[in-house]
Amino acid sequence: MEDLGQNPVILPPQIIEKPTSITVFGVLNCVFGGLALVCTPCSLFGIVLSDKLAPGRTMEMTTGYKSVLVVSSILGIAFAAWLLALGIGLLTMKTWARRGSVIYSCIAIAWSIASVALNIIAMSMQWITIPEGGLPGFIGGMCGGMVSVIYPILLLIFMQSAKVKQAFYPIGG
To answer: Which of 99, 117, 90, 94 is nearest to 160 (CA)?
Structure first.
């Protein structure tokens, strides 16, 4: 065979620097997921035994509302495990972890808003009875719950950024 001087040139793969935000959110996902895995069962324990722990000093709840909180807590444990797995995936640059973080963010934002709405409905329908002097704490808890929506919003914004997408899909992605 005759060489026409057209040797194919093999280029090394393009090296994309890993954005710091991927590491930061990977670590935060692990921290928040791990904390939720530890704290949510404690909260669940408190919900189930609230009548027996401090009778008359805690909120009284209907059985239906208490059941909703138990199911919500169990789902919260599953979401915490998912967040922990997503954090590990982000730290190891797995494509599924970026996609999963976007999905998690959307669900967490909706979940936070629904939780506050549920508490407002529960109070207005008298599914819960707040002890005297406990209303400011209840309202403060709901406001604190809305603060929790900041993290999934930031996670969503950063996981959708061009730099992060390029790090996970360096060629044509």
So the answer is: 99
CA distance 173 to 165: 8
SS3 at position 129: strand
Residue 54's pLDDT band, with cuts at 50, 70 and 90, is low
What six digits make up the tokens of 19? 């954005």
Apex 49 CA angle, 44 and 53, nearest 5: 125
Cβ-proximal residues to 106 (8 Å cutoff; 6+ apart), any chain = 152, 156
Phi, psi (rounded to 5 degrees) for 131: -65, 160
* pLDDT at residue number 138: 80
Task: Return the DSSP state at 46.
Answer: H
Separation CA 114–CA 142 (nearest Å): 11
d(CA 59, CA 129): 5
* Domain spans, the chain: 20-51+60-162
What is the DSSP code (8-state) at residue 1?
-
For residues 171 and 11, give the distance between their C-alpha atoms in angstroms, rounded to a whole number: 13
